[in-house]
Amino acid sequence: MVKRLQELADLLPGARLLGGDAEITSIERDSRRIGEGALFVCISGAHVDAHSFIPNAARAGARAILTERETVDVPDGLSVLHVQDLQAALDVIVPYFYDYPARSMRVIGITGTNGKTTTSYLVRAILRHAGKRVGLIGTIQIMMEDEVFPTANTTPDVIVMQQLLAEMRARSMDTVVMEVSSHALDQGRVAGIEFDTAVFTNLTQDHLDYHKTMENYARAKARLFDLVSEAGTKAGKTAVLNADDAASATMRAHTRCPVISYGVESKADLTARDVHLAQDGMELTLVHGEAEPVKLHIGLTGLFNVYNVLAATGAALAEKMPAADIAAALCAFTGVPGRFELVRAGQDFSVIVDYAHTPDGMENVLRTARAVTAGRIIAVFGCGGDRDRTKRPIMGRIGAELADIVVLTSDNPRTEDPAAILDEVETGVLPVIGAKPYEKLVDRRTAIFHAIGRAKAGDTVVILGKGHENYQILKGGTIHFDDRETAREAIGGL
Ligand SMILES: CC(=O)N[C@H]1[C@@H](OP(=O)(O)OP(=O)(O)OC[C@H]2O[C@@H](n3ccc(=O)[nH]c3=O)[C@H](O)[C@@H]2O)O[C@H](CO)[C@@H](O)[C@@H]1O[C@H](C)C(=O)N[C@@H](C)C(=O)N[C@H](CCC(=O)O)C(=O)O
Ligand SMILES: Nc1ncnc2c1ncn2[C@@H]1O[C@H](COP(=O)(O)OP(=O)(O)OP(=O)(O)O)[C@@H](O)[C@H]1O
């Protein structure tokens, strides 16, 4: 990819180019990723001034910088492109620079508080069963067919996003399935992407540290439905909406393309009946309009996963996948890492590791565990640091109400004092815990060993919050930590 800096400047009314034209071969916001010919975009973080990395960027081969700052000192030979609004400039120049890669493939965007990852994995499985080459962008990882790449965000920033899409185009992906977070929609990370199918899973409390109110949070999510409604270069746009979630009304109000609705309680285009849950799977019958109902046995469990299956089926129907491929792929699906994942190490009780880290996610998982457990439920959980504090007491209350034994512990405390986070969670626990056994153990390993040590035949230990993550983010840095690995070790020591 090569473009002239002047060509990019010409796209931006009011931009000033200082220091002359240059040939640009990539756009980067991180000086550590820069190679010869890059345009270094100075986006500062909460604690870091990105302009301080200009010398590093220059040494690594940058030819120019893009900044909002009026005056910037740069080493000789580096051009400066000055703009009034950095985000608005990136929205325009980044997709242009990478030649709008999203126009070369079908794009399925999935938004909602919970269920994005699970739904995206289900959609990927169906499309691949139907012979499509599929890319995936989401919380756990990025995939291009079977090849896996790491990621820092659920939805990467606009620069990494366009680079990934360009790579997917180079590898001839037919479709990309993408989790679209509310942060991404608010920050323009999906600028220049033409969505073909947009899916809404649900809206419950999360991320209020960022959005402040549920109305703002819903509005951010609704942006995806503005985007899928825009006329573009491809035909056949569809919104897939959860009819049982009240916030779908907001999504629908932003939708100006055909809708496929799904639900269990409300009247919808796509529904499920005869649902039977077991610990390691479920049976259900999919009903889609006049079509013959299809009975399925799937390796996922929980009513919340019935919704994810319906959402994924809706997306597959929107993408015109054959019914036979949808059914076969769902039946062959074995689950998503860290989502209601059973840890089996020969023990006579169950251990479930689950990524639930919102009040709603936690309630769903604990209720599902209860429905498939003969004995007691032992819940191990905490809440993340530097993120939405208002959910802490709520999650504490849910844990204390729905489990028989509660073990509070750390979950990525980040820069906060882990014990202080647990104290906030505890304000929700104490009013409802009654005589149930309850512990506060800051060290997550100790907490998991304690919970597993208390389990008897028929009980279920539910370890919540981290799912697939194999790290713990502490004030002093990030350490290796994997709930599944630790649980196995604890079971081995019994
Ligand atoms: C709080 C936050 O949003 N942080 C995001 C931000 O990092 P940052 O601003 O802290 O970066 P920084 O380390 O301060 O650096 C500032 C700038 O200097 C640059 N830099 C830094 C170091 C260096 O040596 N050279 C250099 O150029 C960085 O590239 C950056 O532009 O920019 C990074 C690059 O885009 C993001 O990966 C990072 O997301 C972090 C991981 C994060 O946790 N974000 C959350 C809030 C988020 O976005 N979550 C949503 C939703 C998830 C969900 O649904 O649950 C998501 O989509 O992930
Ligand atoms: N449809 C759903 N409704 C409510 N809770 C759900 C649903 N699907 C999954 N969950 C719960 O939320 C957790 C996270 O699921 P998943 O990773 O699919 O969601 P997500 O939207 O990708 O989350 P995140 O963006 O935070 O990564 C699961 O482990 C499960 O506990």
From TrEMBL:
Keywords: ATP-binding, Cell cycle, Cell division, Cell shape, Cell wall biogenesis/degradation, Cytoplasm, Ligase, Magnesium, Nucleotide-binding, Peptidoglycan synthesis. It is an enzyme of class 6 (ligase). Its EC number is 6.3.2.13. Residues 338-467 form the Mur ligase C-terminal domain. SUPFAM superfamilies: MurD-like peptide ligases, catalytic domain (SSF53623), MurD-like peptide ligases, peptide-binding domain (SSF53244), MurE/MurF N-terminal domain (SSF63418). Carboxylation is probably crucial for Mg(2+) binding and, consequently, for the gamma-phosphate positioning of ATP. Meso-2,6-diaminopimelate binds at residues 387, 411-414, 465, 469. A motif (Meso-diaminopimelate recognition motif) lies at residues 411-414. Signal peptide: none annotated. Residues 23-71 form the Mur ligase N-terminal catalytic domain. It is found in: Cytoplasm. Residues 110-316 form the Mur ligase central domain. ATP binds at residues 112-118. Pfam families: Mur_ligase (PF01225), Mur_ligase_C (PF02875), Mur_ligase_M (PF08245). One of its GO terms (biological process) is cell division. One of its GO terms (cellular component) is cytoplasm. The keyword Magnesium applies. The keyword Zinc does not apply. PANTHER family: MUR LIGASE FAMILY MEMBER, UDP-N-ACETYLMURAMOYL-L-ALANYL-D-GLUTAMATE--2,6-DIAMINOPIMELATE LIGASE MURE HOMOLOG, CHLOROPLASTIC. Belongs to the MurCDEF family. MurE subfamily. This is UDP-N-acetylmuramoyl-L-alanyl-D-glutamate--2,6-diaminopimelate ligase.
